[in-house]
Write a structure and sequence with these properties.
The complex is a heterodimer of chains A (about 290) and B (about 350). With about 290 residues, chain A is mainly alpha-helical. Chain A has a domain of about 160 residues: Up-down Bundle (Fumarate Reductase Cytochrome B subunit), CATH 1.20.950. Chain A is about 55% helix and about 5% strand. Chain A contains 9 helices and 4 strands, in the order E-E-H-H-E-H-H-H-H-H-H-E-H. A 5-stranded antiparallel beta sheet of chain B has the order 4-5-8-6-7. Chain B has about 350 residues and is an alpha+beta fold. In chain B, about 30% of the residues lie in helices and about 20% in strands. Chain B folds into 3 domains: about 50 residues, Uridine Diphospho-n-acetylenolpyruvylglucosamine Reductase, domain 2 (2-Layer Sandwich), CATH 3.30.43.10; about 120 residues, 2-Layer Sandwich (Uridine Diphospho-n-acetylenolpyruvylglucosamine Reductase, domain 3), CATH 3.30.465.10; about 110 residues, 2-Layer Sandwich (Enolase-like, domain 1), CATH 3.30.390. Classes of the chains: A mainly alpha (about 290), B alpha+beta (about 350).
Chain lengths: ~290, ~350
C-alpha cells in the first residue's frame, strides 16, 4: 500500500500530490479495531472505582456541595456541539465522495471548515479568558494520576490521585484533537486560496509545488486521523459507564455524587459554593 | 517521460463478441481496463503514455451495440453506431435533424466514418494541460494548470468551473440533451440503468476525474431518442417542432467547438410553447439552460425574447484570462437559437 501519491510537475520534477486514500480505510479500520478491542476488554475489565461506601461517606461529609455541579458552561457546550457538527460535515463531505457517493462537496466542505475555524477561535478565547485554561492540558504533573489509574485498571485499590475536572483520557484525546484539528484547519485555509471562494483571490502560486504537496499531505493525514479519533470519541460517549459525562455535555451539570465518585475534589475545587439554604440547594454551581 | 508517439505500448487486447463478454473482461481488470470504441481519442492517450491500461477492450465486434432501430415512439441508436451512420439515417434526417447537424459538425468525414456516437458523447476533455499528463485535479493531482495567472486558457470554461476549468468537447452531447435523449448504461453487475442525457454528463463539482457517470466496468450501450421532441411531435393545433444547432470553431472542419448550442422548440404560431436548450464548450459538461427554457416558455419568438434569454444564459459566467470572448459568443449563439435560422440569417 502506498502512503503518498506523487506526480511530475511541468519541469519533470517529482512532486507530492496528496496521501493515498487507502489511508482512509486504514484509519477507519484502526478506529473500528480499537472500538472492538476496547469493548472486549471492558467485558473483563477489573477497573476499580471509588467504593460506594466511600462515596457515601464523602457525600455525607460534603453536604455543602450543591446537588448539581456545573461541568460545562453554556458557551462551552455550544462550542462543543457546533464543532461536532462542523467536524461531521467535514468528514462526510471529504470522504463520502472518496467512498463513491458523489455530490458537489467542495463548497459544503470549506463552509464547514470555516465554521470549525470560527468555533476553535471562540473556544481559545473563551478558555483563556473565562475558564481554567490549563485544566485540559497534559504534563509531568499527571504522572501520579497515570500511575494510579493504570493500577486501578488492573484491579488494585490505590489511594493515588483521581482525575481533576477532566480525566487523563479526556485530556489526551483533547491533545490529539488539538494537533489534528489545528493541522487540518491551517492547511485547509491555505488550500482555500487554491479554489474559488468569496474570501480569497485565487493564488495557486502562494506556495511552491513542494509546499503545496506537503500542505495537501498534512491536510489528508489530519483528515484521515480524525476519522479514527471521531469513531473513538463517539464510542466512548456511547458507553453506558460514560453516559454521565455525555449527559453533562448536554445539560451542563453532573450530580454531587458523580462529582465525588469520579473526581478528586482537591484537583477540581468547586469555588463558589452557595449559601447553605435548603431552598437553593438544587441549583447548579459554577466551577473552575 | 519518454514519449514515443508512433509506437503503441504493450497491453492485453480483448475483442469480445458480446456485451457480457466485454463486461467480464472489464470486471477482471477494473480500473486498469480501457474501453475502445472508435479509437480516435483512445490512441492519442495510449501512444502518449498518459493512460497506461493493462487491458484494452475493443467493442468493435459487438453487433448488439451497433445500428439504429425503432424504440417505442422514437429511435434507439447503438453506442457503437458510427457518426456517418447517424448522419445518413433517413429517420434521423426527418425527425431528429438537430442530431444530424451535430454529428455532421464533428471532426472530418474520415473521422466520422470511424468515430461512434457513444465515443463522441463520452470523450474526454481536450485540455492540453490534462492531456500532457501533468498532475492536475482531473488527473488526480491538486492544481488546475489552466487556471493559473499565465495559463493559456482560450478554450476553457466560463461556467460551472469547480477547481477544474476544462470543457466538454462533444458535438453530439448538446443535441442529445436538447432532444431529451436517454443514455442506456449497463453496470458491472449487468444491471441496466437509463439516464437522462444531462445526468449522464458530470461536472468537476461532483467528480473531477470523469466527464460522465461511467465508472470502471460500466458500458454505454445505447442512446434512445424519445418521440416527444421529434420533428413530428408538435401535435395537433398547428404546433411544430423546430431545431437549431450551431457550432463555432476556429476552422470550419476538423476542429472542436469553441461554443456550440442546440435547441429544440415547440412553437404554436409565433409563441414558444416549450423548449430545450443546451450549450457546450463553456463548462466541463454540456449545460442544459433550464432557466432560459423557463424564461422563454409561452413568450413570442422575437428579438426581445431572444435578447432576454441570451442575457439570462450567461448569468454567472466567470471568464479566465484568455476566454472572455466566450461570454458574448455564447450570448449570441443562444440569441440565435431562440430567434431561429430565419431570424439571424435575414
Amino acid at each position: 500500500m502506498d502512503l503518498l501519491t506523487w506526480g511530475r510537475n511541468p519541469w519533470d520534477q517529482p512532486i507530492l500530490t496528496h496521501i493515498s486514500w487507502d489511508l482512509l480505510w486504514a484509519s477507519l479500520f484502526a478506529g473500528l479495531a480499537f472500538l472492538a478491542a476496547h469493548a472486549s476488554y471492558m467485558l473483563f475489565s477489573a477497573h476499580r472505582k471509588r467504593r460506594a461506601e466511600e462515596t457515601d461517606a464523602l457525600e455525607a461529609a460534603r453536604g455543602d456541595l450543591p446537588a448539581r455541579i456545573q461541568r460545562h458552561s453554556m458557551p462551552a457546550r455550544l462550542f462543543h456541539w457546533v464543532m461536532a457538527a462542523a467536524m461531521f460535515a467535514l468528514l462526510v463531505t471529504a470522504f463520502l465522495p472518496i467512498a463513491g457517493i458523489r455530490f458537489p462537496w467542495v463548497v459544503w466542505h470549506w463552509t464547514a471548515g470555516l465554521v470549525l475555524t470560527a468555533s476553535i477561535l471562540f473556544h481559545v478565547v473563551h478558555t483563556v479568558v473565562w475558564l481554567d485554561f490549563w485544566s485540559i492540558w497534559v504534563g509531568p504533573r499527571d504522572l501520579p494520576e497515570l500511575k494510579a489509574e493504570a493500577l486501578r485498571e488492573f484491579g488494585h485499590d490505590v489511594s493515588g490521585p483521581r482525575p481533576g475536572k477532566y480525566p487523563l483520557g479526556n485530556r489526551l484525546y483533547h491533545l490529539a484533537i488539538v494537533v489534528t484539528a489545528l493541522t487540518v484547519v491551517a492547511s485547509g485555509l491555505f488550500m482555500m486560496v487554491r479554489v474559488r471562494t468569496p474570501f480569497f483571490t485565487r493564488n495557486p502560486y502562494l506556495l511552491g509545488d513542494s509546499m503545496w504537496g506537503l500542505t495537501y499531505v498534512a491536510h489528508g493525514l489530519a483528515g484521515v486521523s480524525l476519522v479514527g479519533l471521531v469513531i473513538a470519541h463517539v464510542y466512548f460517549a456511547s458507553r453506558p459507564e460514560k453516559w454521565w459525562i455525555t449527559k453533562s455535555m448536554v445539560v451542563g451539570w453532573i450530580t454531587r455524587r458523580q462529582y465525588l465518585e469520579h473526581h478528586d475534589p482537591d484537583r477540581w475545587a468547586i469555588d463558589e459554593l452557595p449559601t447553605p439554604n435548603p431552598a437553593t440547594s438544587n441549583s447548579a454551581t459554577s466551577n473552575s | 517521460m519518454a514519449v514515443i508517439r508512433d509506437v503503441m505500448p504493450a497491453f492485453e487486447l480483448f475483442q469480445p463478441a458480446s456485451i457480457a463478454d466485454a463486461q467480464a473482461v472489464l470486471a477482471r481488470y477494473g480500473a486498469d481496463a480501457w474501453v475502445l470504441a472508435g479509437g480516435l481519442d483512445s490512441l492519442d492517450w495510449l501512444k502518449d503514455r498518459i493512460k497506461r491500461p493493462q487491458a484494452v477492450v475493443d467493442l468493435g465486434g459487438i453487433v448488439e451495440l451497433k445500428g439504429i432501430r425503432p424504440w417505442e415512439n422514437g429511435l434507439e441508436i447503438g453506442a457503437m453506431t458510427t457518426l456517418t451512420e447517424v448522419v445518413t439515417h433517413p429517420v434521423i434526417r426527418d425527425r431528429y435533424a438537430i442530431l444530424l447537424d451535430a454529428a455532421e459538425a464533428a471532426a472530418s468525414p474520415q473521422i466520422r466514418n470511424q468515430g461512434t456516437i457513444g465515443g463522441n458523447a463520452s470523450q474526454d476533455t481536450r485540455c492540453w494541460y490534462y492531456r500532457a499528463g501533468w498532475p492536475c485535479y482531473r488527473a488526480g493531482g491538486n492544481i488546475c494548470y489552466a487556471d493559473t495567472p499565465e495559463a493559456i486558457n482560450r478554450e476553457h470554461a466560463i461556467l460551472d468551473a469547480d477547481r477544474c476549468v476544462a470543457v466538454n468537447p462533444s458535438d453530439t452531447a448538446p443535441a442529445l440533451i436538447a432532444l431529451d435523449a436517454r443514455m442506456v448504461v449497463r453496470g458491472a453487475s449487468g444491471r441496466e440503468r437509463v439516464l437522462a442525457a444531462e445526468e449522464y454528463f458530470v461536472g468537476p463539482a461532483v467528480d473531477i476525474t470523469r466527464m460522465t457517470v461511467l465508472q470502471p466496468g460500466d458500458l454505454l450501450t445505447a442512446i434512445r431518442l424519445p418521440g416527444d421532441w421529434a420533428a413530428s411531435a408538435g401535435g395537433s393545433g398547428g404546433a411544430e417542432v423546430q431545431f437549431y444547432f450551431e457550432k463555432t470553431r476556429d476552422r470550419q472542419v476538423w476542429d472542436f467547438a469553441l461554443v456550440s448550442v442546440a435547441s429544440a422548440m415547440v412553437l404554436r404560431g409565433s409563441a414558444i410553447e416549450r423548449a430545450r436548450i443546451a450549450v457546450n464548450g463553456v463548462a466541463a459538461r454540456p449545460l442544459r439552460l433550464a432557466a432560459v427554457e423557463e424564461l422563454v416558455r409561452g413568450r413570442p419568438r422575437n428579438e426581445a425574447t431572444a435578447v432576454m434569454a441570451a442575457n439570462r444564459a450567461i448569468e454567472g459566467a466567470q471568464p479566465l484570462r484568455f476566454n472572455a470572448y466566450k461570454v458574448p459568443l455564447m450570448r449570441n449563439l443562444v440569441k440565435r437559437a431562440i430567434r431561429g435560422t430565419q431570424a439571424w440569417t435575414s
